[in-house]
Amino acid sequence: MAPIRKLTFGLLAFAFSAAAASINCDAAAPAYFDVSRGSHPHDVAAAPGAASPVYYTAQMTGKLGILDPKTGKFEEIGLGARSAPHGVVVGPDGAPWITDGGQNAIVRVDPKTRAVKVWPLPADASSANLNTLTFDKKGRVWFTGQSGYYGRLDPATSDMKVWNAPRGSGPYGITATPSGDVYYASLAGNHIAHVDVETGVATVIEPPTKGQGARRVWSDSRGRIWVSYWNTGQVGMYDPASRSWREWKLPGTGHAYAVWVDDQDKVWLTDWSTNAIVKFDPVTEKFESFASDKRGADVRQMLGRAGEVWGAESGNDRLVMVPAR
Q1: How many CB atoms lie within 10 A of CB 81?
Q2: What dihedral angle (degrees, nearest 10) is formed by the CA atoms of 95, 133, 41, 60?
Q3: Is 123 in a helix, a strand, or coil?
Q4: Quick check: helix, strand or coil at residue 78?
Q5: What is the pLDDT of residues 281-315, one digit of tens each?
Q6: Considering just the CA atoms, what is the radius of gyration of the chain in Å?
Q7: Mean pLDDT of 106-124
């Protein structure tokens, strides 16, 4: 077994944890990036290109964080009064787009000027409890609200529509497939749903495991939908082509929070019960774990770019990057 090594340069630390090393001796070490104390970064999104910025939502302080991964330096942009940002993705325009639960709005930050633009939700969805967002093929923003809503914003016209979710509260993670189909996961509703992007109608799709707590979803290159099961510690895969499911149990007791699929169709998850980021290979059906070197990491989201997998350690006020081979 390779020895456990740790080397720290200011804000950047490279570390093997004993748990990760025991599972995979030759794994590349995760890198850690400190951000502002008390910010509790919730979601993270890396712009394409290794030298490009990494964005994170500082949920407790109402800001968007911008990390330079080459230097470890970061800046934070205030998003407005009562801001409590949750999700962030990099849009087709290269800008960070945010679901802001505090402002009950969709927010865009210009990557060059840092100008903030806010699209409030309509009054009849004033307590949506916004969670995550994605883009369809027409450049429209789709988003979820855990209080029982999902919606669509057209940035070109500022037209916004919000629908009541079937079965009420629960909409959480959301994803778009390569063909432009949109699916969301309902944490409280224990299902995923397919959304017709033109009519807005959501159709419930039941996973085989009851009460699984479907929390987040992500599409692979084939349009298959991968789902993290919070309650049962599993990862599920729904194939729309065959309308069939497969499910796998994560190592340990399992509390699978987030899921993301990289450009090699490897599936990445965060597991709160083992304090780890977990990689799943659908071909070999094997798991590989990368435990944090600090307790209580509470990584709430996985996103990434070619060769890099990013998460936000909300419990430790830092970001984590795992090299993806």
Answers
A1: 8
A2: 100
A3: helix
A4: strand
A5: 999 999 999 999 999 999 999 999 999 999 999 99
A6: 18
A7: 98
DSSP for 40-67, written as a single string: -EEEEEEPSSTTS-EEEEETTTTEEEEE
Which CATH architecture group holds 60-284?
A: 7 Propeller (2.130)
Residue 114 DSSP code? -
Q: What is the pLDDT of residues 85-110, one digit of tens each?
A: 999 999 999 999 999 999 999 999 99
Please count the other Cβ atoms lying within 10 Å of the Cβ belonging to residue 172: 26
Look up residue 128 and give its amino acid.
A
Element of type H or E holding 132: strand 130-135
Mean pLDDT of the chain: 92
pLDDT at 7: 31
Q: How far apart are alpha carbons 106 and 91 in whole angstroms?
A: 12
Give the separation between CA 285 and CA 71, rounded to whole angstroms: 37
- Please say whether the beta carbons of 255 and 273 come within 8 A: yes
Tokens encoding 15: 């570390």
User: Residue 137 corresponds to which tokens in the numbers above?
Assistant: 């093929």
Q: Phi and psi for 49 in degrees, rounded to 5?
A: 100, 130
Euclidean distance between CA atoms 33 and 17, whole angstroms: 16
Q: What share of the chain is helix, strand, coil (3-state, %, to 5)?
A: 5, 50, 45
CA quadruple 119, 124, 130, 134: dihedral positive or negative?
negative
